[in-house]
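User: Quick sanity check before I run a bigger batch. Here is a single chain. Can you write out its predicted 3D structure?
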Amino acid sequence: MAKGALPVSPLAPAGGFPALPVVAGVRFAAIAAGVRYPGRDDVMLVEIEAGAAAAGVLTRSATRSAPVLWCERCLAGQRGSDAGFAVLANSGNSNAFTGGAGRAAVTATVEAVGRALGLTPERVFVASTGVIGEPLPAARIVARVDALAAALSPSAGEAAARAIMTTDTFAKGAAARTEIDGAPVAIAGFAKGSGMIAPDMATMLAFVFTDAAVEHDLLQRLLSEINARTFNCVTVDGDTSTSDTLLLFATGKAAMAPLAAEDDPRLPAFRDALEGVIRDLALQVVRDGEGASKFVEINVTGAASDEDAAKVARSIANSPLVKTAIAGEDPNWGRVVMAVGKSGAAADRDTLAIRFGQVLVAERGMVSPEYVEAEAAAHMKGQEIGIGVDLGIGGGKATVWTCDLTRAYIDINADYRS
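Assistant: Done. Predicted structure follows.
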């Protein structure tokens, strides 16, 4: 950003970046390569030791980037080898909509990492985030790969997280510990994202690591299911990125028998811990929404199906009219009514109920006789906003998280390339 660092979001976690546990079999490094941002680390490398399993979900955007297409290939071809993995990621340039030059840049960088770490190119995942449509200066990255490899450390996760920030105002990390077969298991991850956030299969960039032993197919199913309840339930501005990438690696270094089946009685504890980490990262992305001053949780119940509930929740979350009303601390519930009606989900005006926080605003097709606007206005003045909608026609439910839309969002994006 040409105008200097943005102020840290008022919704940032109070404790700052968490202390990530060391995950056996994983090392990190970060370095300045001059991709776009002068004077700061902008490339990170992760090495995952041999014997790990990998899973991922990626954007379904029709204009997805060259790195995303490469990751699709890596995920599809990982069987038949117990070699290690690597992840190379840069900020400042998304290497999207760059044609043959974009593919060549991916090839050059993954080959360089492969030479440095003794891996075939297909074991090297790559991710890029930043400006769309500008050629990635791959030579600058390639020139720093050997130094990156030499700097790898199991405790450099925070540095790696900071290297992939773009308009982010804080680095986003999360961790959990659990126990399987009496052995401690660690889970740690980090993510970046602030704008162009409305994931479709994945999120901006997110990388999660565990020393648990998990069979590949089960790991992929777990990630896909958890992603649907976390990253795919957040939105900042309704725009799906060309670069959305979420990768999960399980090194198998923990002293446990591998998890391989859905009915394994040991699985729920691991699933809960993993979901907690991924949800934490997803919500941190919302809390760092460009220009955000309010964190908003939208709960929809009583829908004809869970799918319909999600349609309604996203319609509310992505409505500029709803989001600007929240920014202005205005309990304008008519905008919520509008968003329900346009969602495409089945709805009945006369069974609809709306709440702001604990305040019942509307019910049975009209304003509630108990409604006191001053109470709703008081709720809107907080940083944590709750909107509840009950459609009253079925058992479907969904939760979506978003933020408000402020003038700062316009300022940030108007100046993004200047």
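The first helix runs from residue 66 to 76.

User: Great, the batch can go ahead then.
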